[in-house]
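Open question from group meeting: does this chain pack into something compact, or does most of it stay loose? Before anyone orders reagents, we agreed to write out a predicted structure and look at it together. Recording both the input and the output here so the notebook holds the full record.
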Amino acid sequence: MIDTEKKLSRLDFNLLIPLSVLLKEKNISRAAEQLSISQSGMSKTLQRLRDLFDDPLFYRTSRGVIPTVRAKELELLLPDVVAALENIMISSSFDPKTSEKCFNISVPAILSHSITLPLINHLIEHAPNVRINEQQILLNPLPLLESGALDFAVHLQKPDDNNFAAISLGQVTPIIYAKQNHPLFKYKQVSLEHCLAYNFVELLISSGDVIPADNPLNKLLFGENKVKQTILTSSQMHILIEVMNHSDYLFVGSSLQMSSMSLSQQIKPVYEFDMSNKKPFDLYLIHHNRITNSEAHQWLKQLFMTSTI
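Structure tokens returned:
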């Protein structure tokens, strides 16, 4: 512990308010009345202050008390100290219109258009100075949420740790997308076999991902005996869209993709997976309980929910 902290550890901050009142009133009886304590209680408090600052602080006169030089010095400092203590004890109010707060969020790249984009559009209009730092999603975002490096993470897995809260953002349905004029749209009813006749592009979901040929997601969606041929894997959605528009490649995305106006103008659903006999994909907004009492974080959480659900 440094010297300043050692000195402050001796200080009872409850004594600063009586000192401030006594300096204003310059009368022990009136100061006691202002603080709703007895005169003897005020006298005891004054003695503790004298011991603390090693100074008489006040001398009695026929009109009350007069401060010493040390007390006058303290009188100049006390307003700022009391104001600082008040700021510590009282949470500062959060105003989205004027706030310059920065939030760190993690959203799967495959959902960025449908989650991050509406969020940013709202901020542009209602909270123009609030900043969003979107980071690559990790397979396990909990350590970063715990350390404070992340404020929120959108994830498909609900944590089983009570230190974290998970709010459901709903369920996502996997869908195969194609460019607007893809040959598959000539069929009245497109089957999975129709789709598997074409090559696919795939989006990296998280940093450090290595997508194997036997990706468990592929087995869940396509079945044990059906394999899709992936030609390009990238972390950049716009690259995949560009490639799709210059080829007949397909892309497996989510139902949320269609909420993005820019994407819906370039690609559209060609096949929706039947999830009736499969476990649905639940989407969660996860945060650590450390932000529970933060007005700013609760505001952004509500915004996440209204922008997504």
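Observations to bring back to the group:
The CA atoms of residues 113 and 261 lie 9 Å apart.
The longest strand covers residues 164-172.
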